[in-house]
Amino acid sequence: FNNAHVVLLLKAEDASLFATKSKKKRKIAEQSYNAAILSATDNGFVNIAAIASERAAEFYMKIGEVQLFSSHIARAHKLYFKWGAVGKCECITKKYPGIAFNTQYAQRTSCQK
What we know:
With 113 residues, the chain is an all-alpha fold. The chain has helices at residues 4-16, 23-42, 46-62, 66-83, 86-95. Helix 3 (46-62) runs antiparallel to helix 4. The chain starts with a helix and ends in an 18-residue tail after the last helix.
Protein backbone atom coordinates (compact mmCIF):
# COMPACT_ATOMS: atom_id res chain seq x y z
CA PHE A 1 0.00 0.00 0.00
CA ASN A 2 1.47 3.30 -1.10
CA ASN A 3 0.63 5.97 1.47
CA ALA A 4 3.27 8.56 0.57
CA HIS A 5 0.54 10.99 -0.49
CA VAL A 6 -0.97 10.88 3.01
CA VAL A 7 2.39 11.47 4.68
CA LEU A 8 3.08 14.37 2.31
CA LEU A 9 -0.33 15.91 3.01
CA LEU A 10 0.25 15.68 6.76
CA LYS A 11 3.69 17.27 6.31
CA ALA A 12 2.10 20.10 4.31
CA GLU A 13 -0.60 20.65 6.92
CA ASP A 14 2.00 20.76 9.70
CA ALA A 15 4.19 23.26 7.84
CA SER A 16 1.19 25.40 6.88
CA LEU A 17 0.51 26.13 10.54
CA PHE A 18 3.65 28.28 10.67
CA ALA A 19 3.86 29.40 7.04
CA THR A 20 2.91 33.00 7.75
CA LYS A 21 5.83 33.33 10.17
CA SER A 22 8.51 31.29 8.41
CA LYS A 23 9.59 31.30 4.76
CA LYS A 24 11.11 27.87 5.28
CA LYS A 25 7.78 26.45 6.53
CA ARG A 26 5.94 28.14 3.66
CA LYS A 27 8.25 26.49 1.13
CA ILE A 28 7.89 23.10 2.83
CA ALA A 29 4.10 23.46 2.81
CA GLU A 30 4.00 24.42 -0.89
CA GLN A 31 6.32 21.60 -1.93
CA SER A 32 4.51 19.05 0.22
CA TYR A 33 1.03 19.99 -1.01
CA ASN A 34 2.20 19.74 -4.62
CA ALA A 35 3.97 16.44 -3.99
CA ALA A 36 0.90 15.03 -2.19
CA ILE A 37 -1.38 15.98 -5.08
CA LEU A 38 1.02 14.49 -7.63
CA SER A 39 1.58 11.28 -5.64
CA ALA A 40 -2.14 10.77 -5.02
CA THR A 41 -2.94 11.39 -8.69
CA ASP A 42 -0.17 9.11 -9.94
CA ASN A 43 -1.33 6.30 -7.66
CA GLY A 44 -5.04 6.62 -8.47
CA PHE A 45 -6.19 8.18 -5.20
CA VAL A 46 -8.54 10.80 -6.66
CA ASN A 47 -10.13 11.37 -3.26
CA ILE A 48 -6.82 12.30 -1.62
CA ALA A 49 -5.80 14.45 -4.61
CA ALA A 50 -9.10 16.34 -4.25
CA ILE A 51 -8.67 16.85 -0.51
CA ALA A 52 -5.01 17.87 -0.91
CA SER A 53 -5.96 20.35 -3.66
CA GLU A 54 -8.64 21.90 -1.47
CA ARG A 55 -6.31 22.13 1.53
CA ALA A 56 -3.61 23.69 -0.68
CA ALA A 57 -6.16 26.20 -1.95
CA GLU A 58 -7.09 27.19 1.59
CA PHE A 59 -3.38 27.50 2.44
CA TYR A 60 -2.81 29.81 -0.52
CA MET A 61 -5.81 31.92 0.45
CA LYS A 62 -4.41 32.21 3.98
CA ILE A 63 -1.09 33.54 2.71
CA GLY A 64 -2.70 35.86 0.14
CA GLU A 65 -1.80 34.00 -3.05
CA VAL A 66 -5.14 34.47 -4.80
CA GLN A 67 -4.13 33.06 -8.20
CA LEU A 68 -2.74 29.89 -6.65
CA PHE A 69 -5.86 29.64 -4.50
CA SER A 70 -8.07 29.89 -7.59
CA SER A 71 -6.20 27.25 -9.56
CA HIS A 72 -6.10 24.80 -6.65
CA ILE A 73 -9.76 25.18 -5.70
CA ALA A 74 -10.73 24.71 -9.36
CA ARG A 75 -8.63 21.53 -9.43
CA ALA A 76 -10.24 20.33 -6.20
CA HIS A 77 -13.70 20.97 -7.68
CA LYS A 78 -12.86 18.93 -10.77
CA LEU A 79 -11.32 16.09 -8.76
CA TYR A 80 -14.26 15.95 -6.36
CA PHE A 81 -16.54 15.61 -9.37
CA LYS A 82 -14.35 12.87 -10.84
CA TRP A 83 -14.52 11.07 -7.49
CA GLY A 84 -18.31 11.36 -7.54
CA ALA A 85 -18.60 13.83 -4.67
CA VAL A 86 -21.16 16.05 -6.38
CA GLY A 87 -22.38 17.43 -3.05
CA LYS A 88 -18.87 18.61 -2.27
CA CYS A 89 -18.75 20.33 -5.68
CA GLU A 90 -21.95 22.16 -4.78
CA CYS A 91 -20.51 23.24 -1.42
CA ILE A 92 -17.34 24.59 -3.06
CA THR A 93 -19.36 26.42 -5.71
CA LYS A 94 -21.51 28.06 -3.01
CA LYS A 95 -18.57 28.81 -0.72
CA TYR A 96 -16.58 30.52 -3.49
CA PRO A 97 -19.13 32.21 -5.78
CA GLY A 98 -16.47 34.49 -7.29
CA ILE A 99 -14.58 31.56 -8.84
CA ALA A 100 -15.49 30.64 -12.40
CA PHE A 101 -15.38 26.86 -12.28
CA ASN A 102 -15.01 25.07 -15.60
CA THR A 103 -18.04 22.83 -15.46
CA GLN A 104 -17.78 21.35 -18.94
CA TYR A 105 -16.74 18.08 -17.34
CA ALA A 106 -19.88 18.20 -15.20
CA GLN A 107 -22.57 18.93 -17.78
CA ARG A 108 -26.13 18.05 -16.81
CA THR A 109 -25.30 17.63 -13.13
CA SER A 110 -26.10 19.57 -10.02
CA CYS A 111 -22.39 20.41 -9.79
CA GLN A 112 -22.89 23.39 -12.12
CA LYS A 113 -23.66 26.91 -10.96
